[in-house]
Amino acid sequence: MCVLLIEAFYGGSHKQLMDLLQEELQEDCVLCTLPAKKWHWRARTAALYFMQTVPISPNYRILFASSVLNLAELTALRPDLGKLKKVLYFHENQLVYPVQKYQERDFQYGYNQILSCLVADVVVFNSAFNMESFLTSIGKFMKLIPDHRPKDLEEIIRPKCQVLYFPVRFPDVSREHDKGPETFFEVLLKLKEKDLPFHVSVLGEAFSEIPDIFSEAKKALGSSVLHWGYLPTKDDYFQALCMADVVISTAKHEFFGVAMVEAVYCGCYPLCPKALVYPEIFPAEYLYSTPEQLFKRLQNFCKRPDIVRKHLYKGETAGFSWAALGSKFRSLLAAEPKEDL
């Protein structure tokens, strides 16, 4: 059996998952990718690219792709791939992804994902929040079509859907604009104004469009900045996490949150919005409802850092590891018909 892995946006968590599957699966894998740049163009045109570049082989049994790819287009262009068991994995969904306003091009991305679900044999989401937000939005989303609307699409797609959490590769340790940076930096600058002692590491890969708030905040935070930007290796990244006491999310959207789970594993106390996927992943005491609540929690931690340094995390992260999820992915990528995981 040969597993064909296709990733139209080979970066971040998308790359992590494909690399992990390729390394851990006993079966032969063929990995076909496009760089993680110009997301919108990948969603529009990747199928045509892969039509020409995916090698023809009689050995393929499974096709596994993320939902960036228009699976309907690819299987129409390559009928040989349409005969495979097709597994579609949703890291995020475009039906509830925040946009400035509905425009025809915005509609296309969600529409592509619906088409992909219709041709897939199994549709997998990285959280229940991701799955339910997608499925329950289909009806409203299709009403954007002015007339002759298709019906009952949720009922057709739902039976082939399941949740399988993202498998995080945890380290051996002893201890993007859509992520809401404005709220994050406003709270930190407020702490700075009150002369509260803290250091901050802002870690992550820099893409082509960086909001002005990042450069402004870096200058204003000054000596409070410990690390800023992309760290050269994963080990450096985990080492920075192990030095930290608190990890903060101010995300406006999140469908799983790999970085938050990694940070908690490394010993950080998480503070997340009481919304999106976070109540599914983290116990209630780690959630906040307003920026004011976040500020008060951080203000207290700055004054009494021992609170977080002595704290034992009350949730669990082991269930998000490959050790816990690997057998489910292997079952998913078996040639047999879909099994309930």
Number of strands: 11
Radius of gyration: 21 Å
Number of helices in the DSSP assignment: 16
Low-confidence stretches: 337-341
CATH superfamily of the largest domain: Glycogen Phosphorylase B
Relative helix content: 40-55%
Estimated structural class: alpha/beta
**Outline, from the CA principal axes?**
globular
Strand order of the largest sheet: 2-1-3-4-5-6
Largest sheet: 6 strands, parallel
- The overall pLDDT, averaged over residues, is 88
| Terminal CA distance | 21 Å
Structural domain count: 2
Description:
- The chain is α/β, with parallel strands linked by helices and 341 residues long.
- The protein folds into two domains: 2-168 and 321-332, Rossmann fold (3-Layer(aba) Sandwich); 177-320, Rossmann fold (3-Layer(aba) Sandwich), CATH 3.40.50.2000.
- It has 16 helices and eleven strands.
- The chain has helices spanning 12-24, 39-53, 71-77, 79-82, 104-119, 128-135, 138-142, 153-157, 181-193, 212-221, 234-243, 258-265, 278-281, 291-303, 306-309, 322-332; strands at 2-10, 28-35, 60-66, 85-90, 122-125, 161-163, 200-203, 225-229, 246-248, 269-273, 287-288.
- Strands 2-1-3-4-5-6 form a six-stranded parallel beta sheet, sandwiched between helices. Strands 9-10-11 form a three-stranded parallel beta sheet. A two-stranded parallel sheet has the order 7-8.
- Strand 9, helix 12 and strand 10 (269-273) form a beta-alpha-beta unit.
- Helix 2 (39-53) runs parallel beside helix 3 (71-77).
- The longest helix has 16 residues, at 104-119.
- The radius of gyration is 21 Å and the shape is globular.
- The two termini are 21 Å apart.
